[in-house]
Design a protein that fits this description.
Blueprint lengths: L15 H23 L3 H22 L6 H12 L11 H15 L7 H11 L4 E2 L2 E2 L11 E4 L6 E5 L6 H13 L6 H15 L6 H17 L8 H7 L1 H12 L6 H16 L1 H4 L1 H12 L7 H11 L8 H8 L3 H13 L3 E3 L9 E3 L8
Antiparallel strand pairs: 1-2, 3-4, 5-6
Helix pairs in contact: 1-11, 2-3, 2-9, 2-13, 4-5, 4-8, 6-7, 7-8, 7-11, 9-11, 15-16
């Protein structure tokens, strides 16, 4: 018997003492993280959002076996956030669509969930009406049965069987009403329960995992009353992917108690919060650099190139690359570079001649 086959299955039960004890610590960590990030100032908050949202979309795709172009994702999000990010590249219509989905979930967390909103998200995931080789029903609830299986053809293992299609509209009506209703449930717990409930209903032909994670992001944003996202749950779920599938299957085949699922979800959330420092290390380093060098006078080209060092500029920095990125002459590029070398921001590497190149100094000092 699956979870959804139990009478009043949506009236979940769990060990409140065990769950609330863990929730208290996680909520405290969440508050500390938000306080720290908000102390950085608006510009660096936007940079942090760019990194976190990009990671969220890329990892959410990877969980489903889809590889997204990180540069396209970053460029699309940067444009949406109004950031003058260096090296913007054109993004495909598909990338633009899934960015719209995530930003709709997080920036409009206070808007009610609805069938139409979910259908819009589903439509951007499958704009051509196909999932890999197969035609699927898009922007509507499934009309057929749904099983989650693994293994070779003829020897498949059924991990889960979703509710019959005629139940889906009723179950989704109940789910949407619950998400939109203030019932006293902590929003972090609500995010975990909503994720479990949505994937249990499995309302679409495909894309249920990605939409479940978008709903999770919506409710976590609601828990913070903030449109700014500074961590990635999908990144942590990717790290713990095997555990995720195991606890999900165990809960859906269990006796209706969801304690293990909620404890795992809080563990995952705590890990996402803990990894914020690592994930956003370049943003934090950038903030410390500009705070230390607040009196450094640089032009727009130099500021952009310095920031690119923190944003993952790979390869050797040469006057040719500088000129190409900034659309300036080689002489202008060389003057820009020499100015930063004189102030200890860049250093000339040992290679000479045509291979002259420069490195960013990890702890540069401003000369008087």
């Amino acid at each position: 018997m699956y979870l959804h086959q139990r009478k009043d299955w949506w009236k979940f039960r769990f060990d409140k003492g065990a769950v609330m004890n863990v929730l208290g610590g996680v909520r405290a960590r969440q508050g500390l993280m938000l306080g720290r990030m908000r102390s950085l100032g608006f510009d660096f908050q936007d940079e942090a959002m760019l990194s976190s949202l990009s990671l969220e979309l890329v990892r959410s795709g990877e969980i489903e076996g889809e590889i997204l172009n990180l540069s396209e994702v970053r460029s699309s999000i940067a444009r949406r956030l109004g950031l003058n990010a260096a090296g913007l590249v054109p993004a495909s219509r598909y990338i633009e669509g899934i960015v719209d989905m995530l930003l709709d979930a997080t920036e409009h967390y206070d808007r009610p969930l609805s069938d139409d909103r979910l259908f819009g998200w589903h439509n951007v995931l499958f704009p051509a009406g196909r999932s890999r080789l197969y035609t699927i029903e898009v922007a509507r609830y499934r009309s057929g049965g749904m099983q989650v299986v693994s293994g070779p053809m003829g020897h498949e293992r059924v991990h889960y069987e979703a509710p019959e299609p005629e139940r889906v509209p009723i179950e989704m009506q109940r789910f949407i009403h619950w998400v939109n209703t203030e019932d006293g449930t902590d929003d972090v717990l609500k995010a975990g329960i909503a994720h479990l409930c949505f994937v249990s209903i499995h309302p679409f032909d495909d894309g249920n995992g990605r939409i479940a994670r978008a709903i999770t992001e919506l409710l976590l944003a609601r828990s913070e009353r903030s449109r700014k996202r500074f961590y990635s749950m999908s990144n942590q779920m990717k790290i713990l992917q095997q555990e995720y599938y195991e606890v999900l299957e165990r809960t859906q085949k269990g006796d209706g108690d969801i304690t293990d699922w909620l404890l795992w979800f809080l563990k995952c959330f705590d890990g996402a919060l803990s990894s914020t420092e690592e994930t956003l290390s370049s943003v934090l380093a950038k903030a410390r650099f500009w705070e230390h060098h607040r009196d450094l006078v640089v032009n727009a080209r130099q500021r952009k190139m310095i920031n690119m060092q923190f944003d993952g500029f790979f390869g050797k920095l040469t006057t040719g690359k500088w000129a190409k990125i900034n659309k300036c002459s080689s002489d202008t590029a060389l003057n820009d570079i020499r100015y930063l070398v004189d102030r200890g921001i860049l250093r000339k590497n040992m290679e000479g001649g045509r291979s002259t190149n420069y490195s960013f100094v990890a702890s540069p000092k401003v000369e008087s």
